Amino acid sequence: MTAQQTVTARRRNLRGWMFIGPVVTGTLLFNVIPVLPTLVTSFTDWDGLAAPKFTGVSNYKEMFSGQDPLFGKSLINTAIYTIGYVPVGIIIGIALALLVNNRLRGMAVIRALIFLPYVTSLVAVGVISRWVFSDQYGVINAVLASFGITGPHWLGEPSSAMAAVIVTAIWANMGFNMVIVLAGLQGVPETLIEAATLDGAGRFSRFFHVTLPFLTPTIFMLLILQTIGSFQVFALILVMTGGGPGDGTYVYIYHLWYEAFSLRRMGYASALAIVLFAVLLAVTWIQNRLSKRWVFYQ
Amino acid sequence: MTIEDTREKKLAPPRSPAPVDDRGEVRRRRVGRIAGPTATYVGCVIVALIAIAPFLWMLSSSFKEPGDVISLTPRLLPSPFTFENYEYLVNNGVLPFIRFLGNSAYITVLVIIGRLMVCALGAYGFARLQFRGRDAAFGLLLASLMIPDMLMVLPLYSAYVKAGLIDTHFPLIVPPIVANTFGTFLLRQFFMTIPKEYDEAALVDGASHFRIFVSIILPLSKPALATLAVLTFVNVWNDFFGPLVYLSDVNKFTVPVGLAFFQTQDSTQYGPLMAGATLAIIPTVLVFVFAQKYFTRGISMTGIK
Amino acid sequence: MTSGSLFTRRRLLQSGLGLAAAGVAGTSLAACGGSSSGSPAGWTEVTFSSVGDPTTQKMFKDMIAAAQKESLDAHKIKIVWKPAPGDDWASVMLQFASGTTADLQRIDDDRVYDLATSGKILQLDKMMQDSTNGFDLTKYSPTFTTKVAVEGYQFSITPGMSANALYYNKKLFSDAGLTAPTSWADAWSWDEFDDAVKKLTKKSGNKTDTYGLQYAVNTIQATAYGAGDTALYNNQTECGYGKPETLDAIDKQISYIREGYAPTIDVEYLPLFNGGKLAMTWQAMDISAQISKDVDWDVMPWPKTPLFAMTKNYARTWVIPKTAKDPQAAFLAMKALCGKAASEVMAKAQFAVPALTEVAKSAAFTDHPRPKTANVWAEALGNVAGKPVDVPFPRGPIGTALADSFVEGTNANNLVSGKLATADYLKRGRDAVNAEIKKRGWNGDKGKELLEKGGALTDPDLKVAAK
């Protein structure tokens, strides 16, 4: 390597870091360094008040030796929620974005209305969803009954309660997914769509061969972020089911929250957080590896 | 100035459209043109109705008397109709709700402006430049999302105590500006769909990367920037945990903390809570409506070439 | 780099810095408008903080005003009030961990034990026994001290307690030809109660139209206690609730859910009660405001169990953190807030039953349009037939394990969702508690050891709690 090249490389690195420096420094300071104590406390018995007591790997042992059946149960529930919510949520987001991506009259209002659930108070969402899914007085069972079907006791059975939570989550976040996909759609060059139309491509063909490839970076981002977010679902569960019935919707962060703040086992909760971190890191890494096969960048 | 970016590939050609029967397609398109808007409207109205139901309940509850809010079969129209919830909200002798609105507004505006700048800068670096440590840094940003906030708050809180920043708005303004993975990721993905030819042409003309960022990438990214602005607004305006934990002076509280007063472990005052939630949603909707003229492209990207 | 981009960059930076400066200015402006009250020289300020809804906060404001006038102004002590939202233990815990709590702090009663053993709050026994500035405990109900004592030592007091009782729909009662008892001494027997629940419930097919009863899972402790059982056996070395009577009593109570006389826990009680579809619901005092005007209601006691009448009340309790700037002043402020003037404010708001007995019995508490029988609430703090109405429940690490295993966690949720047999529920709960006892090597003396180790006991010989 010549001296000239070294200097160029150094300048190139410096310039790159000038751009990403602020966000990386900020993230380090406020989102990464504060995590480090969690790693330490995960090896302790600590109530958050008195001095932590070092207990080696006993928190991790408790998790993986089956002493805490709720660890496995909540992880499985969380995985079910994620698999049920993320793909459908994204597909609905794409469908809605395509629906409203035009300049027809009144579209501004329609977009705002679809966005509303995302900003509606979660308390209202909780109250309404419990009413919608009520077995005796609920809208859904009333509709089913008009077709002669006896609807389930939605929030009274573990599996249907999880389904109700997933449906509510999809509904509550559809506006979020829609606006992000809508932004992604604006990156699709109109010349290509016009060219494809002139070539005689139909709607679906245009979507799958022109629009979708340009959307893949957006979809990839949604997939990564929604997966990370879904593994940390909490507030919706809190207002809708409180983790019940039984342990039917008892998700991972609910368990972590309960251990940390109800039982005051901050050490154990920290260990739960570290394991979650490892799981998410693995999942994200796999998603990133697989993305090279389907995500299309310029 | 040298062109250093070695990552360039030629703009990948769009996968070739499937051949279709020409005549049949023309006919279908003509039908589509007539049926299109109608079908779109029907779809929109159905989705909008599903979307709006809880909001309507919230709005109607805010005009109901306390005992009428929670009922077996919610009535849409309040009877009796009352303004007492709104009156109580702004004049309860305890909480300066109007002040909360002001606090929320100024925090939100500052975060939006700051975040757009920091995230756009970072996103340009991640999307357009090649340098050492770039991918590792991006990995770090993603990894920082993987630990639940509720545990991070303990060390952060004691750090803020030591720095004398507890009971100030600092923890609600600065970290959301300088440490936001979502915005960086969103803009990075969008920047990556902008054809590289634009940069290349500008670089050949001797423009710096900062110049390309400001005068080519940013103007082309209005839809993404508007989206980030709106989502940041929602995110900061509705942030509850941060203000709850870091503030203890009632005059510094934000709207979500103010609303949390109406909900305790034992009971919820639905009337004033829904009145407050309704007031709180108005600015969000206004910002959305204002920003959305940028959501769909005005001057199309092709116009610049 | 071209000058153009430099300029743009500088402008960007400038506008950014300008805004940041505006932000700082805004922050400091807000600080000026803050709660520092500017008391006259020579006065001592005591900060007081509690969670609560605006109605509650307004009441605290009025209580403070009453206490100022009654005694604090004379002592030149000024209470600075700091309202806190919701029920957020996380914030309060952070404040305790970092020493930023108020000088006088109102918290959940189940937090006292941990705060005491980790040396975060002051032992109050000595100050309480002081002949001039202490308390005359004969004027207060026993729960004032015993409810929140830690191993018999006093780290906090409860000036008022939100009593639990059965809210009932008067119309549904008269339709069924029932008359509710009006005091704990006359509480229904379990058989009478059972009869009433079944009379009040209206079913069509396998659906219930009107439920006779709704209760929360925490009544289970009370049911076990009423069946003559205790939470712990053998000097706290073994989990209790092992008697066959306990199994029978809980199973009976749960059968109401299984057989459709009571709703499962996912069903909200308030719409049912407001809609006249629920006859009795077991609730704390503060739901009164949310009951629909169309419902004519009152309160009545929980039935007598095989042994005695009982209830399960919870409390918010008042502590003085060790970081208090002037503990003596904080104590005097606390005392004044337990005094007659402040207690009357609390009584009039029907927020909680004041521990000051004369006020709890006075018209300030009982003379309200609803409920007519406010004495059912008031009596819940005392004794009936020589037995406390309020159920004792262990606190501390084993108390936490008990609550987790029998009341709050998924085990209890499974039971009241009808997903778990009562015998399995009791077995799982007992196994979990016994495992915790074994892990900690717990026994009846461990609690005091914890207090001593945490440096909590400044005066180990002093105890004020009634035996």
Task: Set out the fold topology.
The complex is a heterotrimer of chains A (298), B (305) and C (467).
Chain A: H1 3-32, H2 36-41, E1 44-45, E2 53-54, H3 58-64, H4 69-100, H5 107-119, H6 122-132, H7 139-146, H8 158-185, H9 190-198, H10 203-230, H11 235-240, H12 252-262, H13 266-294
Antiparallel strand pairs in A: 1-2
Chain B: H1 22-61, H2 66-69, H3 84-90, H4 97-128, H5 134-143, H6 149-163, H7 170-178, H8 181-192, H9 197-204, H10 209-220, H11 222-237, H12 241-246, H13 255-260, H14 270-291
Chain C: H1 3-32, E1 44-51, H2 54-75, E2 77-84, H3 89-98, E3 104-108, H4 112-117, H5 125-129, H6 143-146, E4 156-157, E5 160-161, E6 164-169, H7 170-175, H8 190-200, E7 202-204, E8 207-214, H9 219-226, E9 232-233, E10 238-239, H10 244-258, H11 269-274, E11 278-284, E12 297-300, E13 316-319, H12 327-337, H13 340-348, E14 353-354, H14 357-361, H15 363-366, H16 375-379, E15 383-384, E16 387-388, H17 396-408, H18 410-416, H19 422-440, H20 446-453
Helix pairs in contact in C: 2-12, 2-13, 9-10, 17-18, 17-19, 18-19
Report what the structure shows.
Chain A has 13 helices and two strands, in the order ααββααααααααααα. Chain A has 298 residues and is an all-alpha fold. Chain A has two domains: 41 residues, no CATH class; 237 residues, MetI-like (MetI-like fold, Orthogonal Bundle). In chain A, a hairpin with a 7-residue loop joins β1 and β2. The mean pLDDT of chain A is 90. Chain B is mostly helical. Chain B has one domain: MetI-like fold. Helices cover 65% and strands 0% of the residues of chain B. In chain B, α8 packs antiparallel against α11. Chain B starts with 21 loop residues before the first helix and ends in a 14-residue tail after the last helix. Chain C has two domains: 191 residues, D-Maltodextrin-Binding Protein, domain 2 (3-Layer(aba) Sandwich); 201 residues, 3-Layer(aba) Sandwich (D-Maltodextrin-Binding Protein, domain 2), CATH 3.40.190. Chain C is built from 20 helices and 16 strands. Chain C starts with a helix and ends in a 14-residue tail after the last helix. By secondary structure, chain C is of the alpha+beta class. The N terminus of chain C is likely disordered. In chain C, α18 runs antiparallel to α19. In chain C, strands 2-1-3-13-4 form a five-stranded mixed β-sheet. Chain C has a five-stranded mixed β-sheet with strand order 7-8-11-6-12. Chain C has a two-stranded antiparallel ribbon with strand order 5-14. The interface between A and B is large, with 112 and 118 residues.
